[in-house]
Specification:
Layout lengths: L1 H10 L5 E7 L9 H6 L4 E7 L6 H13 L3 E4 L5 H5 L2 H7 L1 H9 L7 E6 L6 H9 L17 E5 L3 E5 L11 H9 L10 H15 L3 H6 L7 H11 L11 H13 L26
Parallel strand pairs: 1-2, 1-4, 2-3, 4-6
Antiparallel strand pairs: 5-6
Helix pairs in contact: 9-11, 9-12, 11-12
């Protein structure tokens, strides 16, 4: 991570605009606080990706919230090329001061040099591929696919610099870590899926009552663990002797949340005031 930050500190001197890709389901948790410091003084565009998986009402509230903070923010589904293609006006808006300054100086218009950044698995490479119309960057449904930087030229208007996913070293808020695990921004090898499934059950029962009952045809009663057992029974996740296979039940629940089968769900609600996620400098 330290090596990536040092490289970004050098590369950011070359760009006009920083596009930060975040996950619309967890817009605060998926923002790396270090990016604000790295991008100081640069034009910014915040892209809430995977908005098709997030609650529509919350999407609207989050866009209003970020705009109230002075950020140009847009919703997109990077898998939908048409959705991404509409972002050019937002890029122009984010760079308006630079464009007007260059014109006032009589400078020839040149491509907007842009850095695309964000934490792992928020869809940076998919965004670039959809924006360019070609498979220019490697993609994958897991963190850590993009290993090094690469410039991608898009006609004469924009040049994009893809960067590896960047996580900060320590989560001061346990909920942030849970959210990143739920969207698979943290490697699966270090996760306890059964515990994570219980977290998701609790969140859904509190924030979206009836959602689990509708999908799994079971009343949302008892404990979170008993509900995971019920999902296991109804999905045939049984070992020899009729014992519940909690691991399989947890995997089914998490996969159906992440793929959108459970419906459009936002795990973070737009706040009334600014929320700041900070990294612990002692861990850097």
């Amino acid at each position: 991570m330290t090596k990536t930050i040092r490289q970004m500190q050098e590369d950011i001197k070359l760009v006009d605009l920083v596009i930060e890709i975040i996950d619309a389901r967890v817009p605060v948790s998926s923002r790396n606080p270090d990016i604000d410091a790295l991008a100081a003084g640069k034009a910014r565009l915040l892209v809430l990706n995977k908005s098709d998986l997030a609650d529509e009402k919350e999407n609207t509230r989050w866009i209003r919230y970020f705009k109230d903070q002075g950020l140009v923010a847009v919703l997109t589904d990077a898998r939908n090329r048409g959705s991404v293609k509409t972002l050019m006006p937002s890029i122009t808006e984010a760079c308006r001061e630079k464009i007007e300054r260059d014109r006032a100086r009589g400078m020839k218009e040149r491509p907007i040099r842009t850095m695309v950044t964000g934490i792992p698995n928020v869809g940076k490479s998919t965004f670039i591929n959809s924006f360019s119309g070609k498979a220019m960057a490697k993609t994958g449904n897991k963190p850590g696919v993009t290993r090094g930087k690469q410039w991608i030229r898009l006609g004469g208007k924009v040049e994009l610099l893809d960067t590896p996913g960047l996580l900060w070293p320590k989560f001061e808020d346990k909920t942030v870590g849970e959210n990143l695990a739920l969207i698979r921004a943290i490697n699966e090898q270090i996760l306890d899926e059964e515990s994570l499934a219980l977290v998701l059950i609790r969140r859904l029962r509190d924030g979206y009552p009836g959602k689990l009952a509708l999908r799994y045809e079971a009343e949302e009663t008892g404990t979170d663990l008993s509900y995971l057992e019920e999902i296991g029974r109804r999905r045939g996740c049984l070992r020899k002797g009729g014992e519940i296979d909690y691991g399989r039940a947890a995997s089914i629940l998490l996969d159906e949340y992440r793929s959108g089968i459970l419906g459009r769900i936002s795990l973070e609600k737009a706040p009334e005031k600014v929320i700041t996620i900070t990294s612990d400098p002692s861990e850097s």
